[in-house]
Amino acid sequence: MKPEPFLTGQFLLALPGIGDPRFERAVIAVCAHDSEGALGIGIGAVIDGLSLHDLLGQFDIDPGEAPDAPIHFGGPVEPRRGFILHSLDWSGQDTVEVAGRWALSGTLDVLKAIAAGNGPDEWLVALGYAGWGEGQLDEEMTRHGWFNTDSKPELIFDTSVADRWEHAFSQAGIDPRLLAAQGGTA
Q1: Which intervals of the chain form a coiled coil (predicted)?
Q2: Which of helix, strand or coil describes residue 44?
């Protein structure tokens, strides 16, 4: 059986020299990828000065039991739109299961559940996303810039933000210190 050409459920890691400062050392959880395009949530950087309690306050949600966790830079597209990557033990109004590995939700019900202490066991909140149009990611994958890996979902929930990029490369058997900032030509 031929492997699926799409990257849903995998991680994209920015290679040194990607050429876009917004994506330096980026780690993106690919949540949807098909012939029409792709959507991923950045998990490799947090937004300075913004926490979960701040975000909950903007929606008049009492933080309750929710820890004051950092908010991640999900990507440059729609930077005011929120997304929650979470474990598969909770599902809400618009929850999408991602390749049986984690789930993605984008409505207030998941934030309310987290605050009430009855949300998913593991979760990460991000603002914005990385998006690609039809065939765009497929084309980008043929050039220097991105490396995809089938790293474990624990990368999202159990690895510190500062360590995710290096850890994901290490899990793929690559020492990121040895990566060149540009590709060669033959």
Answers
A1: none
A2: coil
Contact 146, 165 (CB under 8 A): no
Query: Could you read off the pLDDT of 115-124 as tens digits, one per residue?
Result: 999 999 999 9
Residue 149 lies in a domain: yes
CA distance 34 to 38: 6
Token code pair at residue 51: 């926490």
Residue 83 structure tokens: 């997304």
Q: Exposure pattern of 101-116 as b/e (b: 16+ CB <10 Å)?
A: bbbbbbeebbbbbbbe
What is the rounded CA–CA span in Å between residue 171 and residue 160? 15
CB atoms within 10 A of CB 85: 24
Residue 142 belongs to a domain with what CATH number? Answer: 3.40.1740.10
pTM for the full predicted model: 0.92
